[in-house]
Structures are given as C-alpha cells and as structure tokens.
Amino acid sequence: MTDDNKSQGGPSGYQGSSPKKSSDGRGARIAAARGVMGVIGSKLALDIALSKASTYSDLSARDRAFARLIAATTLRRLAQLDGVVGPYLSRQPAPFAMAVLLTGAAQLIYLDTPVHAAVGESVAALKSSKDRNDVNAAGMVNAVLRKVATEGKDAAAQIPISKNLPEWLRKSWTRAYGEDAVAAIAEQLSKSPPLDLTIKNKGEAEKWAEEIGAVVLPTGTVRKSDIGNIVGLPGFHDGAWWVQDIAAALPVNILGDLTGKTALDMCAAPGGKTLQLAAAGADVTALDRSAERMLKVKDNLERTGLSAKCIAVDAGKWRGVRDNDFDVVLLDAPCSATGTLRRRPDVAYTKSPKDVESLIAVQDRLLLAAARQVKDGGTLVYCTCSLQPAEGEQRIEAFLKMRPDFRLNPILTLGNDGEALGVQPKGWLRALPHRLSEHGGMDGFFVALMTRNV
Ligand SMILES: C[S@@+](CC[C@H](N)C(=O)[O-])C[C@H]1O[C@@H](n2cnc3c(N)ncnc32)[C@H](O)[C@@H]1O
C-alpha cells in the first residue's frame, strides 16, 4: 500500500464485519468493477460510470468513497494489474469478471485490504451476478486472487509505473518533457491526490490550515493530505474556502490585487477562478456555455458570499456593451484535461489525440474572442489543465502570430517560487505533476500572461 492510500483512512483495512457492512462492502466492490468497465468499455467519466452501477445509490457516503478509491486505483495502475493477473489466465474472462479480478487485485496490491475481504467479497460479487458467465468465473477469480495475495506486490513492482499511461500520452509527454520527467510524472499520477483549498481571505490561510489539519503551501494554497468528507470540514459552510488544486489557482494568483479592475472569466464553471477574481477585488463577469454548470458557479458564489455577473452563453459569440472593455480577461479554455489525471484517472481512457485536435480549434476560436474583450494595456490570461503542448505553448505561439498587438508578459509575481512551480525561460508557466513532489505534487497546467499594446 502506498502512503497516499494509507492516508485515505476509512477504506484502508475495510473488512465489512457486520452483516450490513458486509453487504455494503460487496455493493462498493460491485460498483467499483462496474465503474472500471464503464470507463474502459464505454468511455464514461468515472463518477458517471460509478453512479450507473445498480448498487451505487444504496451505498453510504463512506462506501461510495471506497468504491471510487478502488476504481480510481485500478485505473491508475491498470497496466501493472493486467501484468500481474495476465499470466494466471488461460483465457480472457467475461468483462465483469475481469473487472472484479482487476479491482480485487488493486485492493490486495495497493490498498492493503485484508485478503479475506478482498477475495471473499470479490467472489461473492460474481456469485450474485445474474450472468452465468460471471457466476462460473467465481472459482477462477478466487484462485487467481489468492495467488495475487502472495505474489502480486512483487510482480507489480517489476512493471514500470509509466506503463500505466496510455501510449499516446506516454509518447507525447516523452517528446515534450523527456523520459526522466515522464517516469516522475507517472509516479506522481499513480498516487491518490491531496485536498487543496484556496482561502477566500489570503491572510487567514494559517488559521484555516490549523483548524483543518492541513499545511500552507508556498503560494497560499492550503493542503490536506487526504480528501475525506469535504463538506464536514471547518469553514465549508462559512464559505471560507473552496476546493482548487494548487496549479489551478496559479492563473489568478499571479495577477495579485485586482481592486477596481474589471475582469471577464470566459469559461467560468464550476467557478474556482471566478471566486478568486472576485476575492481579489475585481468586478467580475463570468461566462460559461453550460447553463447547468453555471448553476454551480452561482452556488459557489452564494456559499462564499462573493459576487459576479453570471451569463450562460458561448463565450466565442458573446459581445458585451462594447469591445475592449476589460482590464483582465481570463480564458481557462476547455481542454483534454490530461493534467488532471491523478484526480480524474478516467481521462486516460476517455480522451484521445482526436479530442485534442478538435479542442485546439475551440481554443483558437476562444482566444481570438477573448482578445476582442481586452482593453488597451489590459491583460489576457490563457490557461489549460492539459499537459499537451498543443493545448498550451503551441496555442500561444500561434495566437501571438495572429495578434501582434499582444505581447507575452513574463510571469514574475511568483518570485523565488516561480522556477519550482514551472515558470519557463520564455515567461509562461508549465506546471508538471511531479513538481513540488516534496509537498505532494500538483496538477499539470499551462499559463500564459499577455498584455495588449496601448
Ligand atoms: C476548464 S473548465 C473551466 C474551469 C473554471 N474556470 C474553474 O476554474 O472552475 C472549462 C469550461 O468551459 C466551458 N466551455 C466550453 N466551451 C465554451 C464556450 N464556447 N463558451 C463558454 N464556455 C465554454 C465548459 O462548460 C467548462 O465549464
């Protein structure tokens, strides 16, 4: 078991001792296996795939978290798990039986679940299936998982962690960042992520960190080592903070105090950066194409007591009272989200190079629309939570060729922390997951700051 999983608390050592818990443990394992099948087979986001499992709606919050942990761990370690169970199989099991086998192996190798619970409940999950093939596979799964319980950890350790990355990502990241960086990124992405919070009043970071049992990172983000029950944490109902990875907080952090400035957040939902802009003192207009997601922005504004004008619209088509009207325009563009893999391991299976191709066209269109809204002398911030240079560096190079009235502004406001966080000689910021690994890493992100000539 890795330390990060140990720190997840509850689910580790989950035994299901009482009859009620026993059946919940089984329900969680069934949901986890169905979740893995939904991600890999149907390319669903993990949370959607989990929620479609028949057992999911009856699970307690704790068992849902356990189901998610098992499924996420399986997806993060898929090649290693496949490599461990593969040699024991004489033929490919039916999809659900295979998913139960992989999720069972994940519990044994990476979650330190007691053998009797991991094996017994996996077998029971198969026996409860309506499909004869699954029931028939129960004996084989029992035998293989018992082998995995004794030999699995050593066998898994022989398989490089970077094999867990889909080939297209491994290749493109190796081209962009080199083999050593990819190995370090893969290592970081194999772990459960910490909980990162942005504090509304920056001066209260230490106070909330102490109350929550967390630490303050160099940029002011408050980090708790495990995610746990977010709404139960001190300060949630007071709206004192919101959940936001340290990397996702950087695009607004670098802007400093925005008192008296107007800001346009072009792709705002669920609102992390809208909240930051408002907390920094800006008069914020927030756009998002999705009316449903915009409701989340409004909920977050209400909870935190911050304000912004929210408009559900295609930001590429939106026109304000006049063009060139905002001091700051932030484009947190829709992207492949390959930088968020440790929080969303499903992205490795649901996104493809084709998605990147079509997103690039959207990013270019939105960048030109964003440029139209920037005042002379104003600031344009472009960012994506992608590790694909095509969605970061290359978009900005292309944009600056099309719009010579904009110039790249080196990111200087991170001071001595800039280099460690990923500020590049060109002046933009390329956050990689293994940076700040001594603090638990960060999401992959790209940020560029540009100024419109006067
Ligand atoms: C990366 S997320 C934004 C995250 C957000 N900035 C935050 O910090 O919480 C991208 C958002 O872009 C929105 N989006 C996609 N295409 C859009 C468009 N043409 N106009 C406006 N919003 C769009 C999506 O609905 C999604 O909410």
Give every kind of bound small molecule, once each: S-adenosylmethionine
Oligomer: single chain
Number of helices: 18
Poorly predicted runs:
1-23
The 3D shape can be described as: elongated
CATH architecture of the largest domain: 3-Layer(aba) Sandwich
**Element order, helices and strands?**
HHHHHHHHHHEHEEEHEHEHEEHHEHEHEE
Number of self-contained structural domains? 2
CATH-assigned homologous superfamily of the largest domain: Vaccinia Virus protein VP39
- The CATH class of the largest domain turns out to be Alpha Beta
Structure description:
- The chain is an alpha/beta fold and 454 residues long.
- It folds into 2 domains: 3-159, N-utilizing Substance Protein B Homolog, Chain A, CATH 1.10.940; 236-452, 3-Layer(aba) Sandwich (Rossmann fold).
- The chain is built from 18 helices and 12 strands.
- The chain has helices at residues 3-6, 19-42, 46-51, 61-76, 78-85, 95-110, 115-127, 132-157, 167-177, 179-189, 205-212, 246-253, 272-279, 291-304, 347-350, 353-373, 393-402, 418-421, and strands spanning 195-199, 215-216, 222-224, 241-243, 262-265, 283-288, 309-312, 326-332, 374-384, 406-408, 429-431, 445-452.
- Strands 5, 6, 7, 8, 9, 10, 11 and 12 form an 8-stranded mixed β-sheet that branches. It has a 4-stranded antiparallel β-sheet with strand order 2-3-1-4, sandwiched between helices.
- Helix 6 runs antiparallel to helix 7 (115-127) and helix 7 (115-127) packs antiparallel against helix 8 (132-157).
- It is elongated.
- The chain starts with a helix and ends with a strand.
- Residues 1-23 have low confidence and may be disordered.
- S-adenosylmethionine binds at residues 248, 267-273, 287-290, 293, 314-316, 332, 334.
